[in-house]
Amino acid sequence: MGLRDLVYKLYERRLETRLRPDTAPRHIGVILDGNRRWARSMGHHDVATGHQRGADKISELLQWSQETGVEVVTLWLLSTDNLTRPAQELDPLLAIIENTVEDLAAQGGWRVQPVGALDLLPDKTARVLKQAAESTSDASGLIVNVAVGYGGRREIADAVRSLLHEHASRGTSIEELAEILDVEHIAEHLYTRGQPDPDLVIRTSGEQRLSGFMLWQSAHSEFYFCEAFWPDFRKVDFLRAIRSYAARHRRYGF
Predict the structure, then answer these.
(1) DSSP string of 132-172, one letter each residue
(2) pLDDT tens, position by position, 184-218
(3) Distance between CA atoms of 116 and 14, rounded to whole angstroms?
(4) What is the CA radius of gyration of the chain?
(5) Is the CATH number of domain 24-151+198-246 3.30.1490.190?
């Protein structure tokens, strides 16, 4: 172990000793950004190298989250916008996502749940996501939401559409629904229904925007923006994010 690695290891331990379990977020959302830029910065012409390196980092993140007391992690792996990318870039990325989700399910202990518009995905990708959810449905550990084919606006539109179909099947008229409709009715039809909203949203790569990630659920979330590209995200960066969250006074409003 080199001096730099030793210093980081000591810093990790220092951060860990200062974190209290009762201040940990229950739900963390992570925008895994910077894979393509990392690949180019490292001289790789094939951006799939960056996506694979980023995928290899996911298990580490989940382990860190579990050690810290986090209960739910939502990973944004592919947006609806990215589905329009050229096939020569999208197809390898989908293959990496499929392999990653299968690996997460095979590791056991984590409950994998797809979050997104599965009808927009290729049949194989959708099938892999559904199978992972079925095979881990009884797991009692960390809930891992894999957001694939995900967009915040699409999620809200899907929730409203689902709500309308449900009430139409009951014979509820539009006028009657308008009288009783409130935010909880919509929340009950989100992809993440039944889960706590994210307490903390982390975005890597230095970008400081949500880009449509969990628009509804993040109304009261705290945000942490990290300069590192996702493949370079270290445990020290994760612990800094948790420390920053723990130091904030959440007002759940203005």
Answers:
(1) HHHHTTT--S-EEEEEEEE-HHHHHHHHHHHHHHHHHHHT-
(2) 999 999 999 999 999 999 999 999 999 999 999 99
(3) 38
(4) 19
(5) no
Identify the bridge partners of residue 112 per DSSP, sorted by sequence position: 144
CA torsion through residues 57, 63, 65, 70, sign? positive
**Distance of CA 153 to CAs 126, 145, 158, 194, 249, Å?**
20, 18, 9, 19, 29
Select from 225, 227, 221 the least CA-distant residue to 205.
227
- In the chain, the N- to C-terminal Cα span, in Å, equals 47
Query: Could you identify the residue written with the tokens 């409203």?
Result: 160
Contacts 24+ apart (CB under 8 A), 128-132: 128/98, 128/101, 128/102, 129/101, 131/105, 132/101, 132/102, 132/104, 132/105
pTM metric for this prediction: 0.93
Cβ-based neighbour number of residue 89 at 10 Å = 15
> Of 2-11, 111-120, 125-134, which gets the smallest average pLDDT?
2-11
The Cβ-side half-sphere exposure at 5, using a 13 Å CA radius, reads: 2
206 secondary structure, DSSP code: T
Q: Helix (H, G, I), strand (E, B), or coil: what is residue 130?
A: helix
Nearest residue to 70 (alpha-carbon basis) of 132, 142, 13: 142
Which residues form the catalytic set?
Answer: 33, 82
Amino acid present at 234: R
Amino acid at 187: A
Phi, psi dihedral angles at 124 (to 5 degrees): -65, -45
